[in-house]
Amino acid sequence: MRVAEENNLQPMRRIIHIDMDAFYASVEQRDFPTLRGKPVAVGGSRERGVVAAASYEARKFGVHSAMSSRKAYANCPHIVFVKPRFDVYKEVSLQIRSIFLEYTELVEPLSLDEAYLDVTANKKQLASARHTAQLIKDQIKLQTGLTASAGVSFNKFLAKTATDFQKPDGLTVITPKQAKEFIAKLPIDKFYGVGKVTAAKMQSLGIFSGADLMQWEEAALVKQFGKVGHFYYQISRAQDDRDVNPNRIRKSLGAESTFEVDLTDVDSVKEELARIALDVDGRINKHTAYGKTLTLKVKFSDFKQITRSKTVLFPITDHSSIMQIAYQLCDEIQWTKPVRLLGLSISGLNREIPFQNQQLSFPF
């Protein structure tokens, strides 16, 4: 991708988005040859839990991350469940991160297996972002035995969107000349930042593609979608001025479930909280971010919503700790009405490595 000069004579940015292919599952298949070629789900078991990651063989059967283990087994009865080894995933992630840093200091990790890189002024003085991305992919393969997909463009939105186009082991470049046509043809549910619920609302408004989104005025989008309408207006025009921020960290991590049938007793509530806690545990490990405040969110059948929070002295780092606090919060609530939704989230995040073997204790 050529470096274009803008009116202010500043070079156009060159952004690479790297996403490892089925990272957890690929590490398991690399380390255990008997798993290669088989549908693998990391996390959970056939009886309970949540899938943290699925191999491409499992994805062919509709298995994906955040799916319940029972649903995954129903979709693919011969699926192989393996326990996550986050210590190994973190070690491999550090290997990959060190490769990134050979090319640029402007690396913004999104999780263990995903990051943005700004290579506009890179350490190796490479003129081509495409070539840089290919070198990084090749080096990852050589050093870890794993494949990665890359998206290359002049802003973060387009780079991330491009990554998914040729997975696995893909490399997609979107140049400034290609951007408008690319966005116009892009289905609305493929836009980064447009989730399932928002996509459905957009489709109900006649917005099925980028071309449709471009027809909307900014004020109308804000009226329909709130402040995020500004973002939708900008990305439909290939505008994204966000910098690659090496110090970025999420404010919170969490998971929630809305139930088809309302929960009517506290035992059912606690069973679902255990499942949600497994999902949260996977997310904090994936993002290597730890917090000290856990929040329980409850929405009752009459749509009344309440939250309860607790802050502890040490980082919340595992499923057991999440459950101890969640059950304590649960006992503070009077469960007099059926429950429509439950959620757990951890806030006050940082990336400091918590003390090993630190046990939390809670009064009951």
From TrEMBL:
Binds 2 magnesium ions per subunit. CDD domains: PolY_Pol_IV_kappa (cd03586). Gene3D superfamilies: 3.30.70.270, 3.40.1170.60, 5' to 3' exonuclease, C-terminal subdomain (1.10.150.20), DNA polymerase, Y-family, little finger domain (3.30.1490.100). InterPro entries: DNA/RNA_pol_sf, DNA_pol_Y-fam_lit_finger_sf, DNA_pol_Y-fam_little_finger, DNA_polymerase-Y, DNApol_IV, PolY_HhH_motif, Rev_trsase/Diguanyl_cyclase, UmuC. Its EC number is 2.7.7.7. Keywords: Cytoplasm, DNA damage, DNA repair, DNA replication, DNA-binding, DNA-directed DNA polymerase, Magnesium, Metal-binding, Mutator protein, Nucleotidyltransferase, Transferase. Residues 15-195 form the UmuC domain. Its main location: cytoplasm. The keyword Lipid metabolism does not apply. It catalyses: DNA(n) + a 2'-deoxyribonucleoside 5'-triphosphate = DNA(n+1) + diphosphate. Monomer. Belongs to the DNA polymerase type-Y family. Poorly processive, error-prone DNA polymerase involved in untargeted mutagenesis. Copies undamaged DNA at stalled replication forks, which arise in vivo from mismatched or misaligned primer ends. These misaligned primers can be extended by PolIV. Exhibits no 3'-5' exonuclease (proofreading) activity. May be involved in translesional synthesis, in conjunction with the beta clamp from PolIII. This is DNA polymerase IV. The lineage of its organism: Bacteria, Pseudomonadati, Bacteroidota, Cytophagia, Cytophagales. The gene is dinB.
